[in-house]
Specification:
alpha+beta; 17 strands; nine-stranded mixed β-sheet; Alpha-Beta Plaits; 255 residues; 19% helix
C-alpha cells in the first residue's frame, strides 16, 4: 500500500507537496468519499478522483541505466546539475525516479521505475540484495588489508555488515589498487567511507551489478527496460530471507 499523495504524484498530476495540498483542501475522493487526511493509504484498486477527474494510473515500468559520472541520481537538483532523468527525456513518457542513489562521481548500474513497492523492496535493508562495486583506490592494497571489511567495520558510529572484498590488481607505478567489493547495504557514501576507514581512499568507483542486473552491452548514458523475468527475479531475491546465492561475476572491464 502507498500513501494517497504519493499515488497522485506518481500519476503525474501534481508534485507530492501539491498533492498533499489538494487532499487538505478536500479536492480528492477515494471511492466517492472525500479524503482530507494525509495519512490515508491505498492499494491501487480504489476509484480515485482529483478535482472530479478520475486518476489514470501509469503502466509500471522498470529500467536499468548505465549511469555516467557527472550526473546526480535525483529527479531534480537545487544546484541545477544534470540528473539521470535527462537520459529519458522525450524517450519515456512515464514519471520515473531512481531506485536509491549513486554518487555524482560514481558510475554504473542504476535502476529506475515508477513502481513504489518495487523500489521499496529493492532499497530496504531486509532485502539483502547484493551490490557489486569496482573501486580504484589510493595505495597498494593486500588481501590482508581487506580483512576488516569482511568482518564489518565501524563507519559513522555504525558497524557495517560483513562484506566480500577481493583484490583485483595493483598499479605500483601510480600507487593505486583495483578492488571488488560486494555489499547489500546502501547507506550514504558507504563504499567510500569503508575504504577510507581502512586507509585506502577511493579515486574512482563503479557499481558493476545490482543483484542479477548489470550494464554489459550498454554504453555510458544508455538504458534498457528490464525484462519481466529480471523484475520477478529481483523481487524474489528481496522477498527470500534464506541465504542468497553467490553473485555471478561478469568479466572485469577496463577501469
Amino acid at each position: 500500500m502507498e500513501r494517497l499523495q504519493k499515488v497522485i504524484a506518481h500519476a503525474g498530476i501534481a508534485s507530492r507537496r501539491k498533492a498533499e495540498q489538494l487532499i487538505l483542501e478536500g479536492k480528492v475522493t477515494v471511492n466517492d468519499k472525500v479524503v482530507r487526511e494525509l495519512g490515508v493509504k491505498v492499494t491501487g484498486k480504489e476509484k480515485i478522483e482529483v478535482e472530479g477527474i478520475p486518476l489514470q494510473r501509469e503502466k509500471k515500468v522498470y529500467y536499468v541505466l548505465h549511469k555516467p559520472r557527472g550526473f546526480v541520481s535525483t529527479v531534480s537538483d537545487e544546484k541545477n546539475r544534470r540528473t539521470v532523468l535527462d537520459f529519458f527525456k522525450d524517450k519515456v513518457s512515464e514519471r520515473l525516479y531512481p531506485v536509491g542513489r549513486l554518487d555524482y562521481d560514481t558510475s554504473g548500474v542504476l535502476l529506475l521505475t515508477n513502481d513504489g513497492d518495487f523500489a521499496n523492496k529493492m532499497m530496504h535493508p531486509s532485502g539483502e540484495i547484493d551490490k557489486v562495486y569496482l573501486a580504484r583506490v589510493k595505495g597498494i592494497v593486500t588481501q590482508e588489508s581487506l580483512k576488516p571489511l569482511a568482518k564489518g567495520i565501524v563507519v559513522d558510529g555504525y558497524k557495517t555488515k560483513p562484506a566480500s572484498a577481493r583484490l583485483i590488481s595493483v598499479d605500483k607505478k601510480n600507487q593505486s589498487s583495483l578492488v571488488q567489493l560486494i555489499i547489500h547495504e546502501g547507506k550514504y557514501h558507504q563504499v567510500k567511507k569503508m575504504f577510507d576507514a581502512i586507509g585506502f581512499p577511493v579515486k574512482k568507483l563503479r557499481r558493476e551489478q545490482f543483484g542479477c542486473i548489470d550494464v554489459v552491452g550498454l554504453a555510458a548514458g544508455e538504458f534498457r527496460p528490464l525484462t519481466p523475468h529480471e523484475v520477478k527475479t529481483l523481487v524474489s531475491m528481496a522477498n527470500d530471507k534464506r541465504e542468497k546465492p553467490k553473485v555471478k561475476f561478469t568479466k572485469m572491464r577496463q577501469f
